[in-house]
Amino acid sequence: MNKVKELEVGNHYKAADIDQFLSSTDVVILSSNESDVFAHPEREYKVVQMFEGLFEHSSNDGEKYYRTKPAYVLDKV
């Protein structure tokens, strides 16, 4: 398993490497493979998009807030 420090758009990564990256970095991962993204550690995913942030809805006050937090969109290879 390689130590991934950054996910780059267009590159392929194994699920195990993405798991390690996610465990050590404050990011959001969205995958076309839904909840099975980490079911097979050797499966590869391509980073198809990256966003610098996202909007979240607060259940506390009903407002929407923009969060500066990297969000990566993955597609199963």
If you had to describe this structure to a student in words, what would you say it looks like?
The protein is mainly beta. It has one domain. It is 13% helix and 38% strand. The strands form two sheets. The chain has a four-stranded mixed beta sheet with strand order 1-3-6-2. A two-stranded antiparallel sheet has the order 4-5. A hairpin with a 6-residue loop joins strand 4 and strand 5. The chain is elongated. The chain starts with 11 loop residues before the first strand and ends with a strand. The model has no long low-confidence stretch (mean pLDDT 93).
Mean pLDDT: 93
Portion of residues within helices? 10-25%
Distance between the termini: 18 Å
Number of domains: 1
Tell me the quaternary state: single chain
Count of helical regions: 1
Radius of gyration: 13 Å
How big a fraction of the residues is strand? 35-45%
Task: Identify the strand order in the major beta sheet.
Answer: 1-3-6-2
Order of helices and strands: EHEEEEE
Low-confidence stretches: none
The helix-and-strand class reads mainly beta
Q: Which overall shape is indicated by the principal axes computed on the Cα atoms?
A: elongated
Biggest beta sheet attributes: 4 strands, mixed
Record field, number of beta strands: 6
Concise account of the structure shown:
By secondary structure, the protein is mainly β.
Which structural traits does this protein have?
elongated; single chain; 77 residues; 13% helix; mainly beta; 4-stranded mixed beta sheet
Describe the SSE topology:
Blueprint: E1 12-14, H1 15-24, E2 28-31, E3 44-51, E4 54-57, E5 64-67, E6 71-76
Parallel strand pairs: 2-6
Antiparallel strand pairs: 1-3, 3-6, 4-5
